[in-house]
Design brief:
The complex is a heterodimer of chains A (364) and B (351). In chain A, the strands form three sheets. Chain A has an eight-stranded mixed sheet with strand order 1-2-12-3-13-16-14-15, with helices on both faces. Chain A has a six-stranded antiparallel sheet with strand order 5-4-9-6-7-8. Chain A folds into two domains: 258 residues, 3-Layer(aba) Sandwich (Aminopeptidase), CATH 3.40.630; 87 residues, Peptidase M42, domain 2 (Elongation Factor Tu (Ef-tu), domain 3), CATH 2.40.30.40. The C terminus of chain A is likely disordered. By secondary structure, chain A is an alpha+beta fold. Chain B is an alpha+beta fold and 351 residues long. In chain B, the strands form two sheets. In chain B, strands 1, 2, 3, 10, 11, 12, 13, 14, 15, 16 and 17 form an eleven-stranded mixed sheet that branches. In chain B, strands 5-4-9-6-7-8 form a six-stranded antiparallel sheet. The model of chain B has no long low-confidence stretch (mean pLDDT 91). The chains are: A alpha+beta (364), B alpha+beta (351).
Chain lengths: 364, 351
């Protein structure tokens, strides 16, 4: 499947943090085409293992690729006179919610609208105020007595948006954060079928990133990989935002650098991009990256971790925009990085020593 | 002086290599084993003299090598640099300071519009970090790019010096936590009955990152974090507890934002100080977070506390501490560690 079709399928799927089952099955269909083993961990992250071709007998080094499959969403908190009040799951700017279409996942899926009073009836003062969450409501157009039979408090709500192609190979839609990364990982696995790699590859679609990097935390612990790469979205250049805070749309993989990223992982990714002439950009991240990389890095005794960001405009809205060219470059960069992993790099990272230490200190 | 060398070294969170090298040179002949882990923590082991397993046979002491600083985010067309803080920095302390950028230590200044040109209103506004620039004297983006690159770290450029006086005060940058590093190096010069793990940690200032993984790999029975802590003892209108007082001795933590200290360790420190006539103080509860916050939650939990050298103006370009406090911190820790293996850390049945 081409990356565009894959992204469309994943983007339009449902998977609010904590409720990823539906999108997980779609990802499973993709991962299982390339994986030797596949499992779901206790939190719900999907973990696929593609074996490396061993140079010699014995344990192989391993790399974990993480992209989160959950999306931000809403949750029904109250049924009120035929309307629904709701809470947010993950970080929303409440200003972007007004007037959006939603799907309420009750006993059946119900399309709904986040209602807004028309400008005609608003005073000038009212127009100047941001409506807080407790003033917003969802209308599913159902009479009060019937609504109670279909929708209950706690039902999940997703924002609704069809995948759209814009000019210049850009596309727009919801939940590209971080389904686009899952698409990149699939693309990487595709490339790897035509390459040789000696390290084991764990492709992980993590859960509950948007509510605290939870799936990455537990899946990285369970896998205990030697190194890890998180793929997530990064703010792309857009009007009204300083270039210092953005990376360039169409500028290629944004390879993260900063405390969250192991310097040797960063430089290896940059070298790989350079030697295969993949357009890339450096993404300085002075502290908390807010991605799965943040959790993976401090798993167990610490894991050399990198972060590749997909340049993306309008994050956490239903019109997230990115370049398909960037996705293709990331898939290829990941595969080439993996194909070039060798014992020398492991030694440079001090991995063999780390592994021996881990075993000795794990015994009580 | 080791404190001078460490204070003047460059080690913003995520880029602690230079500080680590200085410490390694100092301790490599003092310890039995040492290694650098995946995040960059330097972990040194000094084996204990007692062979029989005690209740406390593995003690971790942690001091963080990293300091707060800046990172270059963007180079403007005119050659000025946009930046963001690494770790917690009050934007108000940044204006008109000098910094060093990257491994080549390219000097730059954080420029500010002169007072002559300011509107009265502008004077009342705190300048945001986003609106600040570092000027390295470059006249174009191309020229700036020959000297620095996006993602370079920058640190304050402050020289160390002794101010003297009865408290033997010194000034310099990054006493949080190079003071703790000095205490830990001094402690490694002694021998102990238990296995002594000295962890010089990374990335404390961006979320206690290094200590967390170091504690996991060491799996200690108990732990002490050694800090250069907040000392807010200046006169102010509304007098509250001054956090710590300069010159009043090592500050023992009972509770901060990140940890409630293990009371048995606090009692041991207090008893030791009183028996040996070492001055001590309690740090005002509830302020600041330290590596102990990460360590005490490692694995199944590690009884921990913090002992700090009071330091004024931390997280700014220049800090101040009393060498008396530093010496007394080393003394207190040395005496307390002599007793630590006798602690009974078992809990009564059923808690």
């Amino acid at each position: 499947m081409q990356i565009k079709e894959l992204l469309k399928k994943l983007s339009e799927a449902t998977g609010v943090s904590g409720y990823e089952a539906s999108v997980r099955e779609l990802v499973r269909d993709e991962f299982s085409q390339y994986a030797d083993k596949i499992r779901v961990d206790a939190m719900g992250s999907l973990i696929a293992l593609k074996h490396g071709e061993a140079v010699e007998e014995g344990p192989r080094h391993s790399i974990m690729l993480a992209g989160h499959m959950d999306e931000i969403g809403l949750l029904v908190t109250k049924l009120e006179k035929g309307f629904l009040r709701f809470a947010t799951v993950g970080g929303f700017d409440v200003r972007v919610l007004l007037g959006q279409e939603v799907v309420v996942h009750g006993r059946q899926d119900l399309p709904g609208i986040i209602g807004t009073r028309p400008p005609h009836v608003l005073t000038t003062e009212e127009r100047k105020q941001v409506l807080p969450l407790d003033k917003l409501f969802i209308d599913v157009g159902m009479p009060e007595d019937k609504l109670g039979k279909v929708v209950r408090v706690g039902d999940v709500i997703t924002l609704r948006r069809q995948f759209t192609e814009l000019a210049n190979n850009l596309v727009c839609g919801k939940a590209f954060d971080d389904r686009a990364a899952v698409a990149c990982i699939v693309s990487c696995l595709q490339h790897l079928t035509t390459m040789k790699h000696t390290w084991d590859v764990y492709a992980v679609a993590t859960v509950q990133e948007e509510v605290g990097l939870k799936g990455a935390l537990t899946s990285a612990f369970g896998i205990a990989p030697d190194i890890g790469i998180a793929i997530d979205v990064g703010h792309g250049d857009m009007m009204g935002v300083s270039e210092a805070d953005t990376v360039t749309i169409g500028g290629g993989p944004a390879i993260g650098f900063g405390p969250n990223i192991h310097p040797l992982m960063h430089s290896r990714l940059v070298e790989t991009a350079k030697s295969y002439e993949i357009t890339y950009q450096t993404d300085p991240i002075p502290g908390r990256s807010g991605t799965d990389a943040w959790a993976i890095q401090v798993t167990r005794e610490g894991i050399p971790t990198a972060l590749i960001s997909i340049p993306l405009r309008y994050m956490h809205t239903t019109v997230e925009t990115l370049s398909l060219t960037d996705l293709e470059r990331i898939g290829r960069l990941l595969a080439l990085f993996i194909a070039n992993l060798d014992e020398a790099f492991a030694q440079e990272l001090g991995l063999s020593k780390a592994r021996a230490r881990q075993e000795s200190s794990a015994s009580p | 002086m080791l404190l001078k060398e460490l204070s003047e070294a460059f080690g913003v969170s995520g880029h602690e290599g230079a500080v680590r090298q200085l410490i390694l040179d100092e301790i490599k002949d003092l310890v039995d084993e040492h290694h650098v882990d995946a995040l960059g923590n330097l972990i040194a082991l000094k084996r204990g003299s007692l062979k029989a397993r005690r209740k406390v046979s593995k003690v971790m002491l942690a001091a963080h090598m990293d300091e707060v600083g800046l990172m270059i985010m963007h180079i403007e067309k005119q050659g000025s640099l946009r930046f963001r803080p690494v770790g917690g920095i009050d934007a108000r302390v940044l204006l008109a300071t000098k910094v060093l950028i990257g491994d080549d230590k390219v000097p730059g200044v954080i420029g500010v519009k002169p007072i002559h040109l300011l509107e009265p209103k502008e004077r009342e506004q705190v300048m945001r970090v986003q609106d600040m620039n570092i000027d390295i004297g470059a006249s174009s983006k191309e020229e700036a790019e020959r000297l620095v690159k996006i993602s370079d770290y920058a640190a304050f450029d402050t020289s160390f010096s002794e101010l003297g006086g009865a408290l033997h005060t010194v000034k310099g940058k990054a006493f949080d936590d190079r003071a703790g590093c000095v205490v830990l190096v001094e402690l490694l010069r002694e021998s102990y009955p238990f296995d002594f793990y000295g962890a010089f940690t990374v990335q404390e200032e961006v979320g206690l990152r290094g200590a967390r993984v170091a504690a996991y790999s060491i799996a200690p029975d108990i732990a002490f974090a050694l800090e250069g802590t907040i000392c807010d003892d200046l006169p102010k209108k509304r007098d509250i507890s001054p956090t710590t007082t300069l010159g009043a001795g090592p500050a023992i933590t009972i509770m901060d934002r990140s940890v409630i200290a293990d009371r048995r360790l606090v009692d041991l420190l207090v008893d030791t100080a009183e028996k040996n006539g070492i001055p001590y103080q309690f740090k005002q509860p509830g302020l600041g977070g330290t590596d102990a916050g990460a360590i005490h939650l490692s694995r199944e939990g590690v009884p921990s506390t913090v002992v700090s050298v009071p330091s004024r103006y931390i997280h700014s370009p220049v800090c101040m501490l009393s060498l008396n406090d530093l010496d007394n911190t080393v003394r207190l820790m040395r005496e307390a560690l002599g007793k630590v293996h006798e602690l009974d850390l078992s809990r009564p049945q059923g808690f």
